[in-house]
UniProtKB/TrEMBL annotation, chains A, B:
Family per similarity comment: Belongs to the GST superfamily. Phi family.
Pfam families, sorted: GST_C, GST_N
E.C. number(s) listed in UniProt: 2.5.1.18
Signal is among the record's keywords: no
Reactions mediated catalytically: RX + glutathione = an S-substituted glutathione + a halide anion + H(+)
Name of protein: glutathione transferase
Amino acid sequence: MVVKVHGPAYASATRRVLACLFDKEIEFEIVPVDLLKGEHKNPDFLKLQPFGVVPVIQDGDLTLYESRAIIRYYAEKYKSQGVDLLGTSVEDRAVVEQWLEVEGQNFHPPIYTLVLQILYYPKLGLPIDEKAVKEGEENLGKVLDIYEERLSKSKYLAGDFYSLADLSHLPFTHYLVTDIGKGYMIKDRKHVNAWWEDISNRPSWKKVLDL
Amino acid sequence: MVVKVHGPAYASATRRVLACLFDKEIEFEIVPVDLLKGEHKNPDFLKLQPFGVVPVIQDGDLTLYESRAIIRYYAEKYKSQGVDLLGTSVEDRAVVEQWLEVEGQNFHPPIYTLVLQILYYPKLGLPIDEKAVKEGEENLGKVLDIYEERLSKSKYLAGDFYSLADLSHLPFTHYLVTDIGKGYMIKDRKHVNAWWEDISNRPSWKKVLDL
């Protein structure tokens, strides 16, 4: 059964799912959703995803959304296939979950603000809110300072193994470094930079960017 | 081994953890953290939780923070003890994870804004931002409309079984109904209201409120 992934391959949350599918060696096909045409707000799409955001997967009888729920599902269901993304014990997984929550609750909000304001607002003809950008950078900096301390003690966020916690940071950190000129926030932090060099050069992530 | 829970029992994220510990029949002791005295920003606390927020648990050698990571840990580790909070299959858990993510990413931000503005800003001597309150209520209303549709088809969010997804909504919905006078947002939605009546009357939640 080939997994159907609804959503453009360039969308950040879709990329989170695709990086996981490549690591888990799971076959998939992309079902295009044209965000510029508003197809994610069409009635047919809303039947799959009532909040009107990408991605959604269909896998046999299972329809599932929320990118971080989808990656957990494949990491658990195919634990022994491809790269193990959850660690080897229940305690390992607990720490993976801790950093996955930190990504969703602490890292994501300020980096999302920066990407939205600097990359997308100009494209939409909206003025950049410089105060929001300044606050976003300050808040993201505080989070990255904690990451720097953590990554001085372990190679990856959850320990000495690559996991969903690291993977989940790929899409938005890619924007930060490549698209909005804030790469110094990574490069100026030695251990965060080494971590980023490692995870962003993984073959599975390169395949995502090549799509 | 008794689980140590650092954080005042009245804090919303601590309550999320305590509700889970009661459901899983796990012994715990509260280690008080006086938020008004700023004890969550003390160096000793920051060694346990670098972001300076409650709760943190200590369980033998494991120190863990992020309330939604902690509840996942206990639900998985003690799957067959107390109430099963993850469903019976990997697919059940996937749907639990979906709604747990919806809680964290869609439900929490607007309800947090409402509670912060209406309950805490006056206590801190800060003026209420009426525009933020209006937007928070609009956004929460849209989320609850989707819940209403979902709960017209299944008794609980992830299906016909109570799970972490429902449990995670308890602390802030309690504020909404009890402390900030917005209970009509629940009562005016028939299925959301039936769900709330059910989950808020569970013995484990009543024990949390009694602490």
